[in-house]
Design brief:
Blueprint: H1 2-24, H2 53-58, E1 70-73, E2 79-81, E3 86-89, E4 97-101, E5 106-113, E6 117-127, E7 135-141, E8 153-155, E9 159-161, E10 179-181, E11 186-189, E12 203-205, E13 208-218, E14 221-229, H3 237-247, E15 256-260, E16 266-267, E17 296-298, E18 307-314, E19 318-328, E20 335-342, E21 354-357, E22 359-366, E23 375-377, E24 380-388, H4 394-418, H5 430-433, H6 437-459, H7 464-481, H8 490-508, E25 512-520, H9 533-549, E26 554-555, E27 563-569, H10 573-591, E28 593-599, H11 605-610, E29 617-622, H12 625-631, H13 644-648, H14 653-656, E30 660-661, E31 664-665, E32 668-673, E33 675-680, H15 681-687, H16 695-707, E34 712-713, H17 729-736, H18 755-769, H19 779-785, E35 790-794, H20 797-804, E36 812-815, E37 820-821, E38 827-828, E39 831-832, E40 834-840, H21 847-858, H22 860-874, H23 885-890, H24 895-905, E41 908-909, H25 918-934, H26 938-959
Parallel strand pairs: 27-28, 27-29, 34-35, 39-41
Antiparallel strand pairs: 1-14, 2-5, 3-4, 4-14, 5-13, 6-11, 6-12, 6-14, 7-8, 7-13, 9-10, 15-25, 16-18, 17-25, 18-24, 19-22, 19-23, 19-25, 20-21, 20-24, 26-28, 29-40, 30-31, 32-40, 33-35, 33-36, 37-38
Length: about 950
């Protein structure tokens, strides 16, 4: 009896456990659950901003939209400034003349307008070979930019796979197809590059002759003609279906065409290379252990305006349905959207917005769902283009972005009264001093709630995307009701507003992965998208076994030729794969030297070298490593090679300085970073400030900023890695700008006890003692909010802000750092750089082969190709900070930004590495902390620590028998 009860209890517990797991496990959404919102959300933004597109349209609400098209031939320009604009005939197969517009300069045309009204503009252009980046132009009408957005117009290049078939390495793994440019003449409308407006921009033209100008911002393009026109109305599917019936069109029969996603013929970006997906054995092609290129898109196909095209060969005229095997597993609580064009046209209105709801599984999606849409296709080849579009998410983003700007502005107003650390016992009477504050809070709460409600209705679920909005709404309403609590909640308010900025970024990205497309007759049964349980079990077991048998550390081909070297790389697998592809395609065929490339942890080089198991060449080494190895006779001296000086001329002297030791050079620089001055144009304009050119300008700006409770940012090192701390960038600036040095000329002692150094150290610490600069600050985020509208940071911060702060695009810039003004009025702008290096180990078996590899790797063309491949693979955030002078010029920087970089680079100094030099950065920071935290006299603090630095240098020189 007791045994029966026990078994029953166990059974009940098992059922309860199964039920609980089933209830929390995400259900497989087999239908894609497309829930359409009833109507488009009406954006609440922009009309009060005189530079916004919404305001521009509101001022021309009653304007006509003329039907006629006005064409202006490219070669008929009336004015060209700042560079040569060449007129050519028959360019790239064009029947007629075109004008080539270089990457700098302005070109103007006279536009004869017959009727006043709103026109759209398009251009027939050809992307001239350049730096492989998008083409950017600024539009002015009669000398003025009509609205914000027209100041940066983006025009695509065309990319495709270099080879028609996917190549494999000698271990049976597919190699990612290299993307190469495949330029063609294109017709493109002037549209919002951020994707916030689906339709092309509309521009108001008065009747008569008007002046239209394009200013080059980045890259060259050939222009055939420019047209003022009106977009054709696109019929709905119901209207199109009626024409099918009246024309007697019939569905095709017994046709099933499958086009693999990775076989796309062209794309708008090199980031859209085919990918390998191992999430399901149902993908085509598939292998349990080997890498197979079997899909396209994923997290790379996400930004508005990015498109992919496929060719479909249709065997007979008729009506066809289109299905996609897709996965959208990134956006829960929102949805990804695509538009579909066939042969350059949207077939009907519904294809402007194809929605893909969240689903963790691969699914077969028929366009039209239960009642599939039918597409009229004639016999022959048709081109299908799918484009990322924001669809009905766009007005939501415009609304939230406007809210972020308004809330940041209110935050700055509050900050001007309360400062960063408000007194919790003080009543600041904010509702009286900022009368509109509670009204702004309540209005923005209502706006954000409407966005959250719309998303919940549109997706049919609540999620983390909506939770961010609700959290902001709750806080805003409470602060509106109890304004006296605002100062105490300023930090959480800033965090929540920052969360909205992140929300914009995450929702704006619309990734989906695609395995294949199906074009079929309606009578065909579509294949299942998911793997069977047996297939899935076989996949999991096989993958587990392969984890023991496959070599996942080695990259690419492993074949060894007569001359062979081993190279270690310490960064990610993506970087290693790009590098190995370049090696196999150019270095090995040119030199007949094979390279065994291994991906290793950064800390493994030292023990491996001591054990005699190290590589011939080590890449991406920290600035301190080569000289430290050289002291121990573990690094090879490169200056002994006969062509060393020729190779060294690729870099600025500042890049080589850290690797010079005892009349030798022990590494070549790969990357070189240095500081730049970043500034918010809108905030400085509000405060009546200009970007500071000298340190005196900085002091003047600080007084204005602090008067408004804002701050200037100076870089300060994180003390978590105190052992390898580099000297502070601000101190190095002040030191080098006044002819100071870190070490004496013979590098036997520290030079930080000089009067120049003492004065630079005192000025540096005064920023923190007298002006109360923060010792720790999240500069990118505080720059976004505007509370730190000026700051000096590494120039790669540019990449981060470009990608991570879309709400302040076009509101910030960067330039050279403030300098020290001399008696003759000239200004010095020296800064110190940090670098990473490629080094040869002393025990390299074939030093000539290793040197050949180092020369190839640091060569201009290799660095350009690697930089472009990395940016193509990972986006603008991965723009490569190469140390090669000529290569940086060819990377896809906008012209103005590159000129600023190049201007600063001329002033860059390298910090020498000496025995015991690791004490310099460490004790410089210790002296700084003693002054700032313990109120010690700057001279005494630095003098004390210089003694420690000198002792360590002397100790190390004795250890290595240096005279």
């Amino acid at each position: 009896m007791r045994s029966r009860k026990k078994k029953g209890l166990i059974l009940l517990l098992a059922i309860a456990l199964i039920f609980s797991i089933w209830s929390i496990f995400p259900a497989r959404d087999r239908s894609l659950g497309i829930v359409q919102a009833r109507e488009d959300f009406e954006a609440v933004s922009g009309t009060d901003d005189p530079r916004s597109y919404e305001h521009y349209l509101s001022t021309h609400t009653n304007a006509d939209m003329p039907e006629q098209t006005v064409r202006i031939e490219g070669e008929s320009f009336i004015q060209a400034a700042d560079d040569e604009f060449e007129v050519v005939s028959g360019y790239a197969g064009l029947d007629g003349k075109a004008v080539i517009t270089p990457e700098v300069g302005t070109i103007s045309w006279e536009v004869p307008v017959q009727a006043s009204g709103l026109y759209q503009i398009r251009v027939h252009y050809y992307p001239v070979a350049g730096k492989s980046s998008g083409i950017e132009r600024k539009l002015t009408l009669n000398g003025e930019v009509p609205f914000r957005g027209a100041d940066v117009l983006l025009f695509d290049r065309v990319w495709g796979n270099r080879e028609d078939s996917v190549r494999r390495d000698d271990r049976g793994n597919d190699l990612r197809p290299r993307q190469v440019e495949k330029p063609v003449w294109q017709l493109a409308a002037f549209k919002d590059s951020a994707g916030y407006f689906e339709e092309p921009y509309q521009f108001y033209f008065e009747k008569g002759n008007q002046k239209l100008s394009l200013t080059s911002l980045r890259e060259s393009m050939a222009i055939d003609y420019i047209e003022l026109y009106k977009e054709e109305d696109i019929p709905s599917y119901a209207e199109l279906q009626a024409t099918y019936e009246s024309a007697g069109l019939k569905p095709a029969e017994a046709v099933m065409l499958k086009v693999q996603g990775e076989q796309a013929v062209s794309k708008s970006s090199p980031t859209l290379a085919p990918i390998s997906d191992r999430s399901s054995p149902s993908l085509e092609p598939y292998d349990v252990s080997k890498i197979r290129i079997n899909a396209i898109g994923g997290i790379n196909w996400k930004l508005p305006g990015e498109w992919i095209e496929w060719d479909v060969d249709v065997p007979e005229d008729g009506l066809y349905q289109i299905a996609l095997k897709v996965k959208q597993d990134q956006l829960r609580g929102v949805y990804a959207t695509r538009s579909l064009m066939i042969d350059g046209k949207v077939p009907f209105k519904e294809m402007e917005r194809i929605r893909f709801n969240y689903s963790p599984e691969w699914q077969t999606r028929v366009l039209g769902e239960s009642e599939p849409y039918l597409f009229q296709l004639s016999k022959g080849t048709h081109r299908l283009r799918m484009t990322v579009t924001l669809g009905d998410i766009a007005p939501l983003l415009r609304t939230v972005e406007s809210s972020v700007l308004d809330l940041n502005e209110m935050y700055r107003k509050i900050l001007m009264i309360t400062a960063n650390n408000p007194d919790p016992l003080r009543d600041y009477q904010l509702e009286q001093r900022i009368p509109e504050m509670t009204e702004v809070f309540q209005r923005q709460a209502d706006i954000l709630r409407s966005v959250a409600d719309y998303l919940e209705k549109a997706t049919g679920e609540q999620s983390d995307k909506v939770a961010v909005l609700h959290a902001m709404v709750v806080q805003l309403e409470d602060m509106a009701a109890r304004p006296e609590t605002v100062p105490k909640r300023l930090d959480t308010f800033k965090i929540n507003v920052g969360g909205l900025g992140t929300w914009i970024l995450s929702v704006r990205e619309q990734p989906i992965a695609l395995d294949y497309l199906l074009v079929s007759s309606p009578d065909q049964k579509l294949p299942e998208a998911e793997a069977t349980v047996l297939q899935q079990m076989k996949h999991e077991v096989g993958a587990y076994v392969a984890s023991y048998t496959e070599d996942y550390d080695s990259i690419g081909n492993m074949e060894q030729k007569k001359d062979s070297i081993t190279v270690w790389i310490t960064t990610g697998r993506d970087q290693a794969q790009v590098l190995k592809a370049l090696i196999d395609e150019s270095f090995t065929p040119e030199t007949d030297i094979s390279v065994q490339l291994r991906l290793v942890p950064p800390n493994i080089l030292l023990p491996a070298t001591l054990a005699g198991e190290g590589p011939d060449v080590a890449m991406q080494m920290g600035e301190d490593i080569p000289v430290n190895y050289a002291m121990r006779n573990a690094a090879a001296d490169l200056s002994g090679f006969p062509d060393f000086e020729q190779v060294a001329s690729r870099f600025r002297e500042s890049g080589l300085t850290p690797y010079r030791y005892n009349n030798g050079v022990y590494a070549l620089p790969e990357q070189q970073h240095f500081p730049m001055l970043f500034y918010r144009k809108d905030v400085l304009n509000e405060l009546g400030l200009e970007p500071p050119k000298t340190w005196q300008d900085v002091y003047n700006a600080i007084s204005v900023l602090q008067k408004h409770n804002m701050e200037f940012y100076l870089p300060i090192e994180d003390t978590t890695n105190n052992a390898n701390m580099i000297p502070n960038a601000t101190f190095a600036m002040l030191l080098y700008q006044n002819d100071g040095e870190f070490y004496t000329e013979d590098q036997k002692e520290s030079a930080l006890n000089s009067e120049i150094s003492m004065d630079a150290f005192k000025r540096w610490t005064q920023f923190y003692t007298n002006y109360k600069f923060p010792l720790k600050a999240d500069f990118p985020n505080r720059f976004r909010t505007g509370e730190m509208p000026l700051g000096i940071a590494d120039y790669t911060t540019y990449n981060m802000l470009t990608v991570m702060a879309p709400e302040i695009r076009n509101l910030w810039d960067f330039t050279i750092v403030p300098g020290t003004q001399l008696e003759d009025g000239s200004v010095r702008h020296e800064v110190a750089s940090t670098t990473s290096a490629v080094m040869m180990l002393e025990n390299a078996k074939n030093k000539e082969a290793a040197w050949s590899f180092m020369k190839w790797w640091t060569d201009k063309q290799t660095q350009i190709e690697y930089g472009r491949e990395m940016e193509g693979l990972m986006g603008a955030a991965a723009r490569y900070p190469t140390a090669n002078i000529e290569a940086l010029e060819q990377l896809p920087w906008p012209v103005k930004d590159y000129q600023n970089l190049e201007q600063q680079w001329k002033w860059v100094e390298g910090i020498p590495q000496v025995p015991g030099g690791y004490f310099t950065g460490r004790h410089l920071d210790n002296a700084f902390r003693k002054v700032v935290n313990a109120n010690e006299n700057p001279r005494e603090a630095l003098s004390d620590y210089v003694l420690y630095i000198d002792d360590e240098i002397e100790l190390k020189r004795k250890e290595f028998n240096l005279k």
